[in-house]
DNA sequence: GTCTATATACTGATAGAC
DNA sequence: GTCTATCAGTATATAGAC
C-alpha cells in the first residue's frame, strides 16, 4: 500500500527477521533494530503498533500459503501419491523466496511464539499439515513419521554439513528421506 | 553438598527449569522464580551467582552423560548394530528420571542457548552424537538421517498425540522409526 | 514520515544488615 | 540463609513538535 519515501516498512521487516532469528525475539530490542536502520524507535512505532505486530506482519503471508496447502490436501485422496505431492509442494514453498528465513525464525523462537498469536497459528497449521500427511493411518508411528517428514525438510538446512551444496540438492535429499518415511505410512 | 534448611537450591532448579521451558529463558525473570518460591531475588543470588549459572547447573549432569555415550560409541565398530545400540542407550537416558525435562528445555530455548556456554556445549555434543550415528557414511543423506533419528526420540513426546499412551510405548515407537532410518545409513 | 523527549516499569545484580 | 534497599541499565510505548 502506501510506501512513502522508500520501503521503510520492508526494511524494518528484513532487519527484524534477521535479528530475531540470530539472537532471539526477546533478546532483540526495538532500539537495536532502529539503530541498524539509522532511524529512531519512534519511527518503528509509526509503521508497527507493537513489537509483536512486526512478527505478525511477516508471518501472515506464510500462514496464507499453508492454509492453501492444507485445503488442497484435504480434497485429495488419502494415498501415498498425495502425501508425496504434499511434501513436495511444501518443500517448494520452503525453499522459495524469503520463506526459508521465516521458517528459520520459527524454528529458533518456538517458546516465545507460544505466547504470540502468530506463533499459535503457525503451530496449529503445522499440526494440521502433519495430520494431512498421515490421513488414513492414525497410529502413533504414523504420526511420528509425518512429523519427521516435515522435520526432514526443515532440518536439511543445518543438519547437512556440506560447504559446497546447492539449495536444490538440499531439497532433493530432504525429499528423498521424506519419501522413505512416507512410504511406511498407511501400509 | 551443603543443603542447609531444605534443598532450596534444588527447589530453585526445579522451578527455573519449569518456567524456562514453559515461557522461555529470556521471558522468565528472577523475580518470577523468587515469587514462585516465596523467597527474594537476593536469596537466588546466594545459591547461584548469575541467571545463566542456573542453566549451567542442571545442564552439567546431562553433558557428562552425553560425553560418556559419545566416548563409548567411538570405540565400537561402525556397524548398524552399534548405531542401533547407541540410539537405544540415548533413548534410555532421554526417558529416564529428570533428563527429559532438561531436553525439553533445550528444544524450546535453542536461540537463547546459542549465547550461553552451556548451550554451545550441548549443541556440540548433539552434533558429535549425530556424527557417531553416521560414522562410515558421510553422505548428506546419511547426515540428515542421523539427525532425524535423534529428532525421532525427542519429538515422540509431542508429535504423537495419543492421550492414553505410556512412556515405554512412546520410546518403543521412537526406536522403531529410528531403526528404519538407521538401516539406510552406510549401505 | 520522522523526530525529541519522556513516562513507566522491569531487568539482572550488589552491598550489607540480621 | 534470607532479608531490605538500591544500583545502573534497558525495555516497550506514548505525546507532541517539526
Automatic annotation (TrEMBL), chains A, B:
The keyword DNA-binding applies. Residues 6-66 form the HTH tetR-type domain. It comes from the Bacteria. Keywords: DNA-binding, Transcription, Transcription regulation. SUPFAM superfamilies: Homeodomain-like. It comes from Micromonospora maritima. It holds the Pfam family TetR_N. Residues 29-48 bind DNA. This is TetR/AcrR family transcriptional regulator.
